[in-house]
Amino acid sequence: MKTVVFWSWIGLICWLSVACSGRQSAGGEANVDLPVIKERGELVVLTANSSTSYFNYRGEPMGFQYELAQQFVQSLGLKMKLKVVNNPSEMVRCLLEGKGDLIAYNLDITQAWKDSLIYCGEENITHQVVVQRRGRDAVKDVTQLIDKDVYVSPGKYYERLVHLNEELGGGIRIHLVDADSLSTEDLITQVAEGKIDYTVATNEVAKINRTYYSNLDIRLVVSFDQRASWAVRKTSPLLAQAADKWHKENINSPEFKASARRYFELNKQPVHGSILSVKDGKISHYDDLFRKYAKEIRWDWRLLAALVYTESNFNPDVVSWAGAKGLMQLMPVTAHAMGIPRGKEQDPEESIKGGVKYIAQLQNIFRKVDDKDEQVKFVLAAYNAGAGHITDAMALAKKYGKDPYRWEHHVDHYILLKSNEEYYQDPVCKNGYFRGTETYNFVRDVMGRADLYKKKIKR
Predict the structure, then answer these.
(1) What secondary structure does DSSP assign to 197-220, as a single string?
(2) Could you read off the pLDDT of 309-359 as tens digits, one per residue?
(3) In the chain, what are the domains?
(4) Which of 71, 150, 178, 440 has the highest count of CB atoms within 10 angstroms of its CB?
(5) Beta-strand (E) ranges in 147-304?
(6) Does the annotation count 39 as an active-site position?
(7) Which residue ranges of the chain lie beneath pLDDT 50?
(8) Which residues are within 8 A (CB) of 217 and not within 5 positions of it... i.e. 6 or more apart?
(9) Which is catalytic among the residues 67, 185, 204, 311?
């Protein structure tokens, strides 16, 4: 009997040794695979801020890779813990140190990383494209770039363009822009607006930006294909197999297709029509509701009407690409937090009442902006972007010697720069990447429209 007990204890000690100390491989890498992850009930996902992977929009996490990771983790019956890091190299380091289990990001497939990683999930093919305006004059061959002005950011885009120019024997007029002031997405905006004719971006970034600017042509490829996918450690083959299986079985699922359509196909710019009848003193069918609820936030009702027009074109049934609903385009989580009953998000009065309640909260957040006219601009910006991105821009303004309590030419300058890595990765920023162009334009549009309404419509 004593012998049986003795060997039972030996077996238990050996099992504990494997379970506890077996978390590190001989190379010092974390040794955790799917069974251990399922036992703890949580999968730690690593990603980075970008327009294609993860970002915070109106207070809610979004991004194509983020959504796919969510769907995958849910299929395993696990909870997802997200860790956002600065760049691919940091992602790989954190993964190998056991600070994450899965990289949910289009990680370039390289020989240098193949020794320590298992690439898994859907293999994506990325390449660089010329971004130009649509039309008969659009270049269709790289040789047509000779004698053209192409504006690019430093790094891979500039390097590829230099090599292409050498391959063609010279002639492309390459303009290297200051990365501190303009991001690749800023350059794409300038192309769409006709300020410049050409820039270069990855096909994924170009596709997302085409949903904002329908006049873009992104068909001309200027680089070799680069393969990219998700990744796990070499010591997590079962997790890799699960990711491969999930992608294979779900790439044509309604959820997968809906996520791809949301980011790469749906138009991000609302279509706006004219107001009802200025000569009759009406802006919309909801003027009485604007008059009623604007008093609660001490706003002119015409300012509230201008916000709603810019958000929804006075259409209570509209649903944005991000899932915002109703006249005031509140995200579902925000709508419910403001007391709007489920199923009533598109009810006109409920939407206005909830939106006004949200504006009141934003007024409290930006109460240190003493000038009330200035405060309105901060509130509008936060309504459009989420308060976190605006407080980030304020922190950047303060750091770089601007006035954090003035919007125009001060904080608005830094909301524009929040799509630039150097700025959204600054330690004073807590909310990461953000496409600030829309918020910058939103504030200007609402304020300008409110001024128009005030001139044309009596109080």
Answers:
(1) SBEEEEHHHHHHHHTT-TTEE---
(2) 999 999 999 999 999 999 999 999 999 999 999 999 999 999 999 999 999
(3) 22-124+227-264 (3.40.190.10), 128-224 (3.40.190.10), 278-456 (1.10.530.10)
(4) 150
(5) 149-152, 173-176, 199-202, 216-217, 226-233
(6) no
(7) 1-22, 25-28
(8) 131, 132, 133, 134, 135, 138
(9) 311
